[in-house]
Amino acid sequence: MATNPSTYSPSQSSERKQLQQQRRRLFQETDWTRFDGRGFQQCRPAFLKTGAASAASGSAFAAFGATKVIVSVFGPRESKKAMLYSSTGRLNCNVSYTAFSTSIRGQSSDHKEYSSMLHKALEGAIILETFPKTTVDVFALVVESGGGDLPVIITCASLALADAGIMMYDLVSSVSVSCFGRNIVIDPTSEEEACQDGNLMITCMPARNEVTQVTLTGEWSTAKINEAMELCLDACSKLAEIMRSCLKEAASAPS
């Protein structure tokens, strides 16, 4: 005798909204604990490694908590627009997500916007004059999206460019913070970003003390912006030290 197939129901959007509202109320409180146990001013553990893709001119892998990114760099190679001579090189950036990068299909970020922001963050750090009439392609793939995707993408891309031997003024590191009422939380997870009142991201060249990109969303007071920027800049400087250590280890490793 055949049995009826078991039935099941997916999580309803109303249930997700209710959970999000509960988290938002929690985040508005003065004192709360982050789900991963970190302090408000504590970044996720950062794992960085070069040589992630053997077929590329240079590559890197980055894992910041649940966020995992692979960046491959190709070139410099002859530009398709070589007929129009340029004394400087060209930089192309593309950001994509795997189909399984997020728990809910279709919730990944706007890839075109991220591609443009990645280009803006890196362009000022690359010495384009060193490869005229040629192009460098940067392909970033988000394997797993766990929050703070764009800062991780930018940081990983900078490391991949260095691994490819592309001349740069300095390494580029990026960090973001989320605002929850009175609280500022650094290096937010995707759950925290979903409930934030605002977000600030800074990309900089720490050794040169130069900022290459700033993005700001939500409502911020001037005092909060200053506090958030100081946190980001300090974290960017420390992250750059980890990036340099990664490159030194790769250079000293036996071939």
From TrEMBL:
One of its GO terms (biological process) is rRNA catabolic process. Residues 1-10 have a biased composition (Polar residues). It is found in: Cytoplasm; Nucleus. It holds the Pfam family RNase_PH. InterPro entries: ExoRNase_PH_dom1, ExoRNase_PH_dom2, ExoRNase_PH_dom2_sf, PNPase/RNase_PH_dom_sf, Ribosomal_Su5_D2-typ_SF, RNase_PH. It comes from the Eukaryota. Residues 42-166, 170-231 form the Exoribonuclease phosphorolytic domain. Residues 1-20 are annotated as: Disordered. Keywords: Cytoplasm, Exosome, Nucleus, RNA-binding, rRNA processing. GO terms for cellular component: cytoplasmic exosome (RNase complex); nuclear exosome (RNase complex); nucleolus. Gene3D superfamilies: GHMP Kinase, N-terminal domain. CDD domains: RNase_PH_MTR3. One of its GO terms (molecular function) is RNA binding. Belongs to the RNase PH family. This is Exosome complex component RRP41-like. The lineage of its organism: Eukaryota, Viridiplantae, Streptophyta, Embryophyta, Tracheophyta.
